[in-house]
Amino acid sequence: MHLAKLLPVAVKEDKSRLPPQLLEKLKPLKTRRPGRFLLELVGAWLVIFSVIALAVHLDHWLMTVTAILLVATRQNILGLLVHDQAHCTGFKPYPGDIIANLFAAYPLMVLTVEGYSRIHLTHHAKYFTEQDPDHIRKSGEEWNYPMRTAQFLKILGGDLLGLNAIKLIKGKQAAPKGRVFVRQNRVPRWLRPAYYLLLATILTATGTWGIFLLYWVLPLVTVFQLIVRWGAVCEHQYNRLGARVQENTPLITMRWWERLLLPNLNFSYHIYHHYFPGISFSQLPKVHDVFVRHGLVDDEAVFHGYWSYLRFILSPGTDSDRGESTRQ
């Protein structure tokens, strides 16, 4: 499979060759941040409950559409918090995994912290090898960027209509090959079914199944799937077996309004997450600043805003024209 244009390399050094002075400056950042984790978790649920309550009260199609969109963005926050708890940057596995499961993973219906950890930590350990579950499930033309605009819109349309939800869900639950990472202090098996039984009981007793299906399940299988797709596209350039992290991971600095409309817990600094998975999402901008001060970031290879990166993945060409494609 041929890639028309390789990703520009924004970070100049491999993790193994980083200067000791830089590593020393990052040591204070390698601590758990439970306060920030809880702040994002509570903030997400406040937005969710507020917009749903307002939509039900106003009973207008425009507010309904707005609520569906906003709920999907906060469902994405919940998924990203599950990702961070997989690395224990929020809480210790116990009782942190229970907190993350009850308030972030279980509401998304198909996730658990322990299940996601098994797959995601394998991705880190077996990065873009034949044992990397992310590389395996994101191989093929569907993940081959850059691509034609019409093909890209067709894929996003399938996500928005819920047509790709089952395939994406199955991909996230695929068992990794080789060594399996088992989460210590495992969550009690009875907790998840008890959670859904309680949820069904509450919805039945309050007569709110309709609200739940419209304002939670519908965005979960439609808009949320589109957001997850975009996050994955911004995460790595796929179909590159054996690639190093800095070779197929874009560095994207978001505009303030992008962070407002589509908050992503600094996920666009994803290369730093792979270099230092024990650093909380809240500290990744500080990591970027340290790399910049040490002259390890090629600004011409940085995508300044989502629009800049979108233009790159929709403009097949050669490596010779990549410099122009990375500027907004």
UniProtKB/TrEMBL annotation:
Family annotation (InterPro entries): FA_desaturase_dom
Keywords (A to Z) from UniProt: Membrane, Transmembrane, Transmembrane helix
GO terms for biological process, alphabetical: lipid metabolic process
Domain of life the protein comes from: Bacteria
Transmembrane segments: 37-55, 61-82, 194-218
Segments forming domain Fatty acid desaturase: 60-304
This protein's name: Fatty acid desaturase, type 2
Source organism of this protein record: Nitrococcus mobilis Nb-231
